[in-house]
Design brief:
The structure is a homodimer of 225-residue chains. The first copy, chain A, has 225 residues and is mainly α. Chain A is built from 6 helices and no strands. In chain A, helix 1 packs parallel to helix 3 and helix 4 packs antiparallel against helix 5. Chain A starts with a helix and ends in a 16-residue tail after the last helix. Chains A, B: Keywords: Cytoplasm, Phosphate transport, Transport. Chains A, B: Belongs to the PhoU family. Chains A, B: Homodimer.
Amino acid sequence: MRVAYHEQMSDLATQLADMCRLAEESMERATEALLQADLSLAEQVITKNEQIEQLSVSCEEKAFALLALQAPVAGDLRQVISGIQIVADLDRMGALALHVAKITRRRHPNHALPEEVNGYFAEMGRVAVALGAAAREVLLTRDPERAARLQEEDDAMDDLHKHLFTVLMDRDWSHGVAAAVDVTLLGRFYERFADHAVQVARRVIFLATGRMPGQLPEHELLQED
Amino acid sequence: MRVAYHEQMSDLATQLADMCRLAEESMERATEALLQADLSLAEQVITKNEQIEQLSVSCEEKAFALLALQAPVAGDLRQVISGIQIVADLDRMGALALHVAKITRRRHPNHALPEEVNGYFAEMGRVAVALGAAAREVLLTRDPERAARLQEEDDAMDDLHKHLFTVLMDRDWSHGVAAAVDVTLLGRFYERFADHAVQVARRVIFLATGRMPGQLPEHELLQED
């Protein structure tokens, strides 16, 4: 029983890491599609999302079967519960990459982004994918120190997001309202993707330390308030 | 043991319903604050959010203690796991109401909304609060038929949101980019609030039927794609 149990636990951890990798890849491709107005790449992201959703259902079922059949206690119990919560975060990360791809598809053959903000999104995409990779590393290693560093790395995303809003709001924005709406939503999608990666890492801290994480202080848009 | 156990289960259900009521009230006040540019009402929502966050931590702890000490099985196990997932949705509903209040505070003494879209937000606020109340009813009654109806009621939110984007994108929007950015984000917050209320109901369906919910097909912005 114990052997089967540990196999199931490690199987669940591997599936969570797989799901995280798919979400990272989706965000990487979605960003490339966005920057290049590449419809076929956007379509790939949209199609691939099904795979993330299937993994999500499979992870939840696996976790539930573990609880029902093995009735784990203490640290093992924490691990399964965290797994169930982490599935929801990874699922959202996939959905946010999907949203980026859908905006790209909707605007094709035009670019959704005015050239002026391409640099911001190239960088936000890079940071988002790096945070996804870091969250995956944390899922596999359960290293609480690496998990804690993720939160700092997310500061780069917040800075980019703040600057993006400055460009939108404070300068002579000459690209019209429709582009501003797209840029606003896209900025939000990248920021939320990063927030969920940080949340995954926070849940691993809980796993490793047994302390309940407090609420994630969500990074406010335009932090001057 | 069983008596204590049932008390704990019912205590958890009551706390979830309380949390849902707080999220509804927050969204109701935040909408009023937004429409009236009422700073003190916005501040109330911002202060009250701490209470939602505390309840969220308390619900998670309660659910975890139940699992650890009582090792529930079958339907009871499902109920506790769903409870943990529902906490995350209710917590986001509170955070989304908080975002609405913060935009109101940031723009004060100005109105964040151009008068032209007030009607949309009055109605989106009404639908959001109604969906919150329906989700709470479902939490207390666990009535799967009522839960299923919620998804239909969410269609009203999607329609409002789509129309709002038409106003933003297609007509002569004369209110500038800054207002467009606020309206875009605010629209998204109301839509996500409604999505989470629907998700709470879906999780109760899982509770009542034992079938794993599939992924929530998130309502896409601008559904023409």
